[in-house]
């Protein structure tokens, strides 16, 4: 997209025409932004492998929220870089030394002061939370359940990194909506409408994929 401004211009113009008009200026602008964001999202994800889509969608959400000043850049930096204090020994049996190093690094941030002490002091409660099947769907212990969505992601990154795929998807759904979070197969009819004499369609085929029936249907 970045390397092809002409393609972006086409997507942008079609998104403007597709946006629902409104007599109220603020609502009209909101409709335009939603239509453009959605169109660019669909256009980009069509060219991505399934395993890469969540990374792109998460970056899209972070960028939008950053522009709106709705997330703390320091906390976002922790989430993306995940610094770990080396050479530490975990005081509890349900965290590895590496995980404890991440918890200690997180505890240095203002909004997470005493997280490490709370885990040590209420080990049984935290163990129950950490060892549950889907911790991203559970409430964090004590006052930590009142943290905002990004802060909960930061904690999940340290506590259960294996559940980050699900936690990030929930985050995107909360912030951008269901249509951005749930992966769907490509609707050929929509792509066909967007094609034309100067906008051809290319199929990169993988084993087991055969678009012939859809092509013949619209031929």
Q: Could you characterize what this model shows?
A:
The protein is mainly α and 219 residues long. It has three domains: 1-47, no CATH class; 73-178, no CATH class; 187-219, no CATH class. It is 59% helix and 0% strand. It contains twelve helices and no strands. It has helices spanning 5-18, 25-45, 50-67, 73-81, 97-107, 115-121, 123-130, 149-159, 164-176, 178-181, 188-194, 212-218. Helix 1 (5-18) crosses helix 2 (25-45), helix 3 crosses helix 9 (164-176) and helix 4 (73-81) packs parallel to helix 8. It is elongated and about 65 Å long. The model has no long low-confidence stretch (mean pLDDT 89).
Q: Average pLDDT, to the nearest integer?
A: 89
Total strand segments: 0
Low-pLDDT regions? none
Helix content: 55-70%
Give the termini separation: 28 Å
The outline comes out as elongated
Largest sheet: none
The ordered H/E elements are: HHHHHHHHHHHH
Based on CA atoms alone, the radius of gyration comes out at 22 Å
* Beta-strand content estimate: under 5%
The class by helix and strand makeup works out as mainly alpha
The number of distinct helices, counting runs of at least 4 residues, comes to: 12
Q: How many domains in all?
A: 3
């Amino acid at each position: 997209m970045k390397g092809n401004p002409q393609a972006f211009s086409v997507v942008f113009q079609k998104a403007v025409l597709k946006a629902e008009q409104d007599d109220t200026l603020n609502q009209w602008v909101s409709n335009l932004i939603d239509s453009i964001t959605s169109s660019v999202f669909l256009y980009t994800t069509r060219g991505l492998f399934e395993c890469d889509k969540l990374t792109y969608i998460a970056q899209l959400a972070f960028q939008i929220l950053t522009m709106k000043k709705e997330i703390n850049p320091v906390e976002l930096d922790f989430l993306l870089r995940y610094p770990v204090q080396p050479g530490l020994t975990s005081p509890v049996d349900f965290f590895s030394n590496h995980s404890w190093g991440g918890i200690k690094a997180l505890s240095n941030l203002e909004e997470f002061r005493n997280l490490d002490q709370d885990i040590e002091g209420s080990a049984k409660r935290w163990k129950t939370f950490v060892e549950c099947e889907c911790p991203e769907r559970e409430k964090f212990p004590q006052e930590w359940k009142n943290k905002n969505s990004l802060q909960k992601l930061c904690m999940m990154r340290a506590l259960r990194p294996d559940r980050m795929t699900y936690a990030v998807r929930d985050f995107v759904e909360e912030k951008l909506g269901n249509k951005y979070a749930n992966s769907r197969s490509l609707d050929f009819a929509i792509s066909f409408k967007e094609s034309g004499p100067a906008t051809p369609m290319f199929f990169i085929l993988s084993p087991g994929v055969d678009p012939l029936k859809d092509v013949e249907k619209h031929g």
